[in-house]
Amino acid sequence: MIEIQELTFKYNGAKKNALDKISLEIEKGGFVGIIGESGAGKTTLCNCINGLIPHHYTGDFYGSVKVAGTDTFEIDAGKLALKVGSVFQDIESQITGYFVEDEILFGLENFGIAADEIENRIASALETMGISELRHKELSSLSGGQKQKVVIAAILALEPDILVLDEPTGELDPASSVQIFEMLKKLNEEKGITIIVAEQKIMLLCEFVKKLIVLEHGTCVHYGEIRSTLTHQREMEEAGINCPRVLTLTGKMVDQGLAPAGMKAEDRICLNAEEAAEFVKKVAGKKISETAASSENKVTSAESSGGDVVLEFAGVSFSYNETANVRNLNVKVHKGDFISIIGSNGAGKSTFSKLTNGLLKPSTGDVLVVGKNTKQQKVSALAKHIGFLFQNPDRQICCSTVREEIAFSLRNNGIAEDEIQSRVEKTLNEFGFDGDTEPFNMSRGQRQRLCLACLIALNPEILILDEPTTGLDYLECMEVMEKIRSLNEKGTTVIMVCHDMEVVLDFAKTIIVMNRGEILGQGATREVLSNRDLLQKARLLPPQIAQVAMLLGPAFDGVFTDDEMITKIKSL
Amino acid sequence: MKGFLDYLPGSSVLHKMHPLVKIFVSVLICAASFCSSNPFYLIGVIVFNVLMALAGNAGLKKGNGLLQRTLGILKGLIKMSIFLFILQVLVIRQGDPILTFGSFSITGLAIQKALLLVLRLMGAALPLSILISVTNLNDLSNTMVKYLHIPYKYAFTFTSAIRFIPIFSIEMSAIIESQQARGVDFEVKNPFKKFGMILPLCFPLLISSVRKIESTATAAELRGFYLRTRACCTKSYKISTRDVVFLLLGAVVLAGGIIL
Q: What is the pTM of this model?
């Protein structure tokens, strides 16, 4: 279906090749994932398949890409779109209409589909995506997940043979991301559509795709059936790809002689928690069912640090529209705490963090930051105590060099010029930045680090992080999080809004679970993450190894990491 | 978040009218505002605008929010008008003085001209906002292509520009929030100081806008945007009696402006 021969591409003005000698074939009906670190060439490869390269983005193009026998050079991207449908990460910018129906109609009319056929196509595309009831709705009233489904339906109406999706779940929460992938699986299995999806969330790829392409610095280092590709787990991790924890677990089990004798490399590849639980059962055998929960399994973990109260929510409620309401929030945060706020979209997490730094003022109740009521404080005054790291670094960066950017933050907060110079130099050294670099020439991960550097230079008492790991690859994510951990160890209080349960488990000391504007529960990280009912109520899944432990039964209660799992297996 | 030009859906008589008729009538009302030199007539034009908003609001109370939006714009225009009025009165030196403070005097002509200016501003600024608010932009670009023979890429660019206003305004609010969180004091009252603070934020706004426009262009290209011709539109837009009546009403308003 797709033949790529010796494909090399360099963007105009770029120093390096974005893709380097890629040769691969994707057969009809395939479901292929593309993974790689930031800047590995995932988007470029997608754009070569859908014809945007060479027709929209120009540069040095060598080799060939053939889609259903047609060279993409010989057909323009618009016409190729009838064969290859494309979906992108930025949902908003793909939308052209006001109503859902307009959105589907746009492509159909552009391609001159006969009027009598249009009605059938609209109805069928909406039905396939399970959103027929949204047909006459305004797009602006839909959730992110629903909008992305409409975008996919609009492409499906064109009846393409191939769908290319570039990080389609980048802006979605875990539950909506799974729904999108379930839809893709259905399209692949029932309609026979070939699906190629570039994605950072490897757990989703493992669960759904049949084949995996692993890119590293523009070259295809591995390509094959998902299980055989994942046998290269170690190389993938070194290349900045975060492999699922179940793979790390089975890998360590094999290394420590806990795997059955004569097992092939592929036999230890587990794609989800269920498979990992089966694998463990094979190793531990009957012992699992025979072992009852013992007192040593009791969940223990670090509680609140118990220092002075630096932030207090007392009976706080706030509402500004139907979707963003919080009710009766009562929280006390102590100096040195590392709290994670978890919950699905619309739970009120962002409202909570904006109430903390005074961007929103409570309708009832009070928020006290280091004893001062936010209602009587300007946001800029609160910024001296609270650093806020936003999800999107590009909204924060506004200077032409890294040095100026750090100094800008300090100047805003009334720090003396001499002090600014010394703090800037100290921060530049600490982060290893070249002060003269232009921020917008840095990678997304580096820009996120720059924003963090600007906050750290201010030495705030409280740090709020809004999805700090979104858009970062594994290595970048770890780098940012380790920096935050070391700050926390030095006494900075950290409040983190995060969807990634693995990051929450690894870094947070306590958790607040929110759902539909209310706090459902709060407590020590492991205590909360082992409370199945609470997580279910908040529509959340526990970290992957905890899922495996839950499947294995009470004997494994309190197991959260691969090392703990191995110790437990050995003890049986 | 709603801007001042984005579509407010509904099924009022204004919603049902032909998109081009609505644009044409709004031009007629604008023209009437500039042609008339009678302050009472201009007040009448403003009242006519508010009545149009009422018709498009589909009800006196809540409706789709058009009336509320129009009154909000009017309030903003009045604030701006007060500033403009004072400026004009102070600057215009022709005519007979009616008030004298030492060597400085205010003339009757200055007051008359300043009043006309602000009333014209209000009369002319409202109709386009009201009538675009009740027009689905897809219908507008379709009719521009079908009846005015404007190439689709220009019609699409025009309607996309309107569609992007609220998107950019949300982005700008998010940028301002990000900057406030890092200590920039936007809560100052001095407008000049505030303006000076907002100016550097154009940089991140520009970067994100260019990115958004770029991805919109690529997404549209891959949905056959460049292949669209006049014949592609499947919806029909017919001129009905109510369109003719509305056109005549617009013409009467213009004629009144010229005569009075």
A: 0.83
Shared-domain flag, residues B90 and B195: no
ipTM of the complex: 0.81
**Please, are residues B178 and A396 in contact by the beta-carbon 8 Å criterion?**
yes
Task: Determine how β-strand B104-107 pairs with β-strand B97-101.
Answer: antiparallel
Mean residue pLDDT of chain A comes to: 87
Task: Enter the tokens of residue B127.
Answer: 């109709």
Q: Taking CB atoms and an 8 Å cutoff, what residues of chain B touch A355?
A: none
Residue among B58, B156, B206, B185 nearest A381 (CA): B185
- What residue ranges define each of the domains in chain A, with the CATH number in brackets? 2-238 (3.40.50.300), 245-299+563-571 (no CATH), 309-542 (3.40.50.300)
Residue whose C-alpha is closest to residue B147's, from B28, B246, B39, B19: B19
Q: Tell me if B227 and A78 make a contact (CB, 8 A cut-off).
A: yes
Where residue B20 falls (left for φ over 0; alpha for ψ -120 to 50; beta otherwise) is alpha
Above 70 in pLDDT, residue B61?
Answer: no
A413 → closest Cβ in B160, B183, B207: B183
Please list every residue in chain A whose beta carbon sits closer than 8 Å to the beta carbon of residue B179. Answer: 396, 398
pLDDT of residue A467 exceeding 90, the answer is no
Of B138, B208, B223, the CB nearest to A107: B223
Yes or no: say if A397 and A439 are a contact pair by the CB < 8 Å rule.
yes
Upper half-sphere CA count for residue A95 (Cβ side, 13 Å): 22
Tell whether B20 and B125 lie within a shared domain. Answer: yes
